[in-house]
């Protein structure tokens, strides 16, 4: 039972001519993590998303492995991560493998002069400390301590924090993040024994079987 959620104005039929009030065309984009046969969202832009303002010099963000294939018990004291102003620079990978990267972050400043898109992985951002707003083309979501923000790959977003005291636990998954199959019935509804109670979530925050944003409060 797919749950479709609409924000803004959309045409009565998809993949048709859809014009702005001035007569110019909206740019239609089909956003999906696994091509045309999987979960998706249909997005209409005032400006084509293919427009590029400028290209900067690329640099590597590949994690540097300190210990590889080790079997030692390790205690990671995450609160020793020093706060940094920039959101991206504050993300410090601590555990990595071919399936996912786990990072800790303590950003002081909001993302005000740029947007970010992870084109390689879905992200789960756990709010360990701080409050703010996640801004994307799908809408805005307020977050607070204890929330899990699930951001599908390819989603362009900004993190706006209310103050400088923020601590984040970030998981980058190279396979799609979904609600567990054992918690869904054949129609896609979350069953009564699910750890995620969809009934307590608002329209914008519900776990949708679509390519969309979600916030979980467990």
How does this model look, in words?
The protein has one helix at 87-90; strands at residues 27-32, 40-45, 92-96, 100-105, 116-117, 122-129, 132-136, 139-143, 148-151, 156-161, 167-173, 214-216. By secondary structure, it is an all-beta fold. The strands form three sheets. It has a six-stranded antiparallel beta sheet with strand order 3-4-11-6-9-12. A four-stranded antiparallel beta sheet has the order 5-10-7-8, with no helix packed on it. Helix content is 2%, strand content 29%.
Please supply descriptive tags for the structure shown above:
218 residues; mainly beta; six-stranded antiparallel beta sheet; four-stranded antiparallel beta sheet; 1 helix; 12 strands; 29% strand; disordered C terminus
- pLDDT averaged over residues: 84
Beta content = 25-35%
3D shape = globular
* Secondary-structure-derived class: mainly beta
Task: Give the uncertain stretches in residue-range form.
Answer: 202-218
**Gyration radius over CA:** 19 Å
Number of helices: 1
**How many β strands by DSSP?**
12
Question: How does the SSE layout of this entry go?
Answer:
Elements: E1 27-32, E2 40-45, H1 87-90, E3 92-96, E4 100-105, E5 116-117, E6 122-129, E7 132-136, E8 139-143, E9 148-151, E10 156-161, E11 167-173, E12 214-216
Antiparallel strand pairs: 1-2, 3-4, 4-11, 5-10, 6-9, 6-11, 7-8, 7-10, 9-12
Provide a brief overview of the structure:
The chain is mainly β and 218 residues long.
